[in-house]
Every structure is written in C-alpha cells, then in structure tokens.
Amino acid sequence: MTTTATLSPAQARSLFRDDYSGPTTGWAGGYTQTNLIAVPADWAYDVLLFCTRNPQACPVLDVSDPGDPTTRLARGADLRTDLPQYRIWQDGELVAEVADATEVWRDDLVAFSLGCSFTFESALAAEGVPLRHVDQGRNVAMYVTDRDCEPAGRLHGPLVVSMRQIPADRVDDAVRITRAMPAVHGGPVHIGDPSGLGITDLARPDFGDPVDAADGDVPVFWACGVTPQAALMASRPPYAITHSPGYMFITDRRDSDYRV
C-alpha cells in the first residue's frame, strides 16, 4: 500500500504541484527535505553571510542563480510549485500563504535551500527513537527563543528551535544520531527545561503544532531552519518567499548523504 512515507520524492512533488497541501514530516522516507528562503539578489549576500555565521540553524545545501527556480538537489523540480505551501513577505510582514508561488516569483530572487531536521528523523526512527508528532499526526512544534543569532549585514534575529519529546533513556541516542548529521542541524542546542531558551509554554508553539508528551519524556531542542523567517520579521527586507513552517521541499538526495 502506498503511503506518504513510501512515496518517491518525484511523486510527492507532483502532488504538491497539483495543490495538495500539508506538513511533510514523515513523507518520502529516507529522502532529504529542505527549508526555502528566496530574497532579492541585493539581499542574497546578507543571507549567505547570516547562514555562514549561524550554520547550525541555517545549513546551506544549495543556492540558485538569480531568478532561477531550479535546484541541483532535484532534477526537473521547480521551487515555485513543488512545495506544499509558501509564505510571501513584504517589509518583514507576512502578507500571504499560497500553494503555488509562480505568480509571485521575481526575476531577481536568489533561492537558498537549507537543511531541515525532518531529514534526521528517519535516522532517529531507524534506531527506534519515538517521534511523538509523527505518531500524533501533527506538525513538529517550533519556538522562538531568547537567544540572538550572530548578525550579518542587514540581517539579525532570534534563534528558532524545533522540539521533540524524547524518552529519557533515549536522549543520549538522539544526541549521538543527530550530531552525525551537521548538514541538517546536527545535535541539540538544549535539553530539558524550556525556560533555558526563554520558552514559557510548550503547549503554545510559535510555529507548528503542540505535541503531547508521554510519561518519562524529556523535551529536546534543535536549531531550526525557520530561523531565517524570524530574521525576516526582525530585519524587514522589502520582499521574500519562504516555505511555510513544516511544509518542506522534498529533494532527490538521500538522508544518508548527509551523515558523517
């Protein structure tokens, strides 16, 4: 039986091109997913420098030429149509969410594909580490922290993290597995008490869905590729297109390609 987990990347992208929309956690198992941020060319260096200075939150896997909606991560794919949902930003304000960005794509946009923590989830699952949000059919929970990223050019903003409830006796395994994948955020930035990141209520994530913990679970936090969206809100570039949090681009690259 075909499920979202057993779809090929091309099959998944075809569904999104036909306007299917939904979070992509657990889709196309074993294949790498990426975050998207596309900015005018005169902001591209600022974004690249921001990513270079904050590599755990913003690991760059590919960068397009200005106006080019293709990516080396998936032959024949189109970044304007092959994600399930996009966000459109003007002067740092979210002005629309759309299923197809073709009409709002500009000839001067440079697209950055950033590593996504959904990629290391397949490695966690392969070793039997539970993924509560997947089991509950929810998007992963994401939070804006009180930690500032290293500013770069005109870009600045707070670190955003994704959170997974991990059984206490599997936390060391989760750390070991994800540290081996630095191109997709690597190991956790914080374990345990969310107040250490300035998070006051796990039941109210800034992005994604609240996730129910099981007895004995410990909240574990990873740097998140939504961080550039927080930087957009803080830095207010005139225009940008991003993925909607949790609605990722599914590449043709294998998750195993990013293990060290």
From TrEMBL:
SUPFAM superfamilies: PSTPO5379-like. It comes from the Bacteria. It holds the Pfam family D-Glu_cyclase. Keywords: Lyase. InterPro entries: D-Glu_cyclase, Putative_hydro-lyase, UPF0317. Its EC number is 4.2.1.-. Gene3D superfamilies: PSTPO5379-like, PSTPO5379-like domain. Belongs to the D-glutamate cyclase family. This is Putative hydro-lyase EV137_3494. It comes from Kribbella pratensis. The lineage of its organism: Bacteria, Bacillati, Actinomycetota, Actinomycetes, Propionibacteriales.
